[in-house]
Predict the 3D structure of the following.
Amino acid sequence: MDPQNNSVRLKILRYNPPFDENPYNETYTVPVGNEKMSVLQALEYIYEEQDDTLAFRRYCCGVQYCNSCLMLINGKQTHACLTIVKPGEEIEVAPVKGKRVLKDLITD
Amino acid sequence: MLVIGAGGAGARAAIEAAQTGRQVALICRSPLGKGGLTPTANGGYQAAVLPGDSPAIHAEDLIAVGCGLNDRPLVEVLTGEALEQARMLEQFGARMNWEIPQKVHEPQMRYPRSIFVPGKEVLATLRRQLRKYGNVLLLEDYLSLQLLFHDGEVVGALLFDIKEGSITVCESKATILATGSLGEIYPLSAQEPMGLPTGSTGSGYILAGMAGADLVDMEMIQFSIVPLHPPLIQGMRCLPWGPLRNSQGNEFLPPNAGEYSHETAQALYRELQRGAVTMDLHDRKAPDHARHPVAGQRNRQLREFEVTPYQRRVTVGLASLFMMGGVHINERCETSVPGLYAAGEVAGNVHGARRVAGNAFTEMIVFGARAGKYAAREAAGKGRFPEVPKQQIGECLERLSGIVQEKHGDITPGELRRKARSIMGRYLHVIRTGPGIQTALEELGTLEQDLPFVRVKTEGGLRYNASLIETFDVNWLLAVSRIVCQAALTRQESRGFQFREDFPEEKEDWLKHTVIRRAGGEWVGGTKAVAG
């Protein structure tokens, strides 16, 4: 991890059937200040500032109930709202396994 | 029958209607339980339970805090049916905590009344119950774009299927609106945990208003203290009721006013104009929240992130929390338009000028059940489906194709949303003035002119197209912001959460609802008597 780097890179598995033949990775760089930020907030930043075609469930119940932000983060199924990104990190984000992908990170 | 919105009120209404055997379509803009405000709620449910207390005393307390602007018959329904509906919820399988804390939740209350059932427990219970009925069609990831009306009666709705990017027409003999609130018209909202939207953009007020329904007391919006910084807890209802300090390090909140009062909100607002306000409790011990599973779980998580005021200084802001005003209803949840019912936060005239904490859940369940019951009764009395007006569907489709067609320019819905929220935050917060509201109306007018030019990206199709959904939302957000401005301008006095610097006194002859109604292609302001 580079301590000078105050951004985080998110490699996101994207897929928009039937427009895309196959899923592909797209990488985004999100500035992170001195304060902690969640993966879900980083996705919201990407949607608002960089790419409004990115599809994920833009919702956070704040109490670990709704599970609408469950996704694979670095290969592990977890809540994006409760996963903290750290400056200098590169993380991989993909939809949960075993479910049909409707678009990008949204599954059936 | 059609139920629009599947938070607590909509889900409760659908169960009640389904019990009568009617065919019910329940429309939800997210998967059930994975959206809206109900899952975010801590879960106080107030009812008169303790010895000495009664529904009548509970009602008097609510009306006193509501500054008399509540319709008494509605408040009496709320307090009168609170206990029976809580027991019904328990019969459905909800785990309720009947151990009422000894301390009153708000200082003006004569008795403590908070039964405890978290929002997630309510929704999980109602969802299990709904599954028992084969006559409920659950339409998840559908957005209701417009009510269809014929001969002055609501006869269905035009739906947008978010999954497929397509339009569906739903006919109904009776329609219930349970679409929740409008908190997102402000830059900081307790309706946006971690700053993420919950879809609280005021759609229901516009659906009802465009169908001709009366919208009452739309200026009455409750604000409360939430964290502003660090960003990980922005907008979350996770702060204890602890001392706030201004930039000089002094406490400034009025003593004994209460956490959710307009006096507290106004004092904080004034202080925020001068500088940052913080909460720092690092010399205190954090409570264990043993009795409060939701707060306990949340606080354990936040402590792990080291973002609580017990660990570090937290900057606070003033956030929209609850909409007291809304669609005018009577005791049967009928709106002023035949065929249309409303329940939950979208309905007005229950909480007056200020809601008492813990009574939104009671309202949601009591009036949700009532709306389901009376709408089913109306539907049962109708032999066949009323005629659906082809012309309205055509006009709506035309507007939609206008929204998705190729545009020159690069105005995004997010940009309009940010600008609109900033206008509302500046001029329509807890302290307002006539000229300020006029300025807001002018600035909103400029944004409205940009609406037809919002660019929706369609290259990837219309399925799960977030910018298209946000465009629908920003249309509602702008329209409902205008309505809030007009209502605030109409009420030339200060009462509860409406404070006008140019009319700082509460006036007896203003003990009446403001009404905003659609007439001649615009929103027109007026007044309406409070039901006694």
Observations:
- The mean pLDDT of chain B is 95.
- The interface with chain A takes residues 30-31, 33-35, 39-40, 118, 120, 163, 193-199, 229-232, 236, 238, 294, 297-298, 301, 305-307, 412, 414, 457, 459-461, 463-467, 470 of chain B (CB under 8 Å).
- Residues 466-490 of chain B form the longest helix (25 residues).
- The domain at 390-529 of chain B is CATH 1.20.58.100 (Methane Monooxygenase Hydroxylase; Chain G, domain 1).
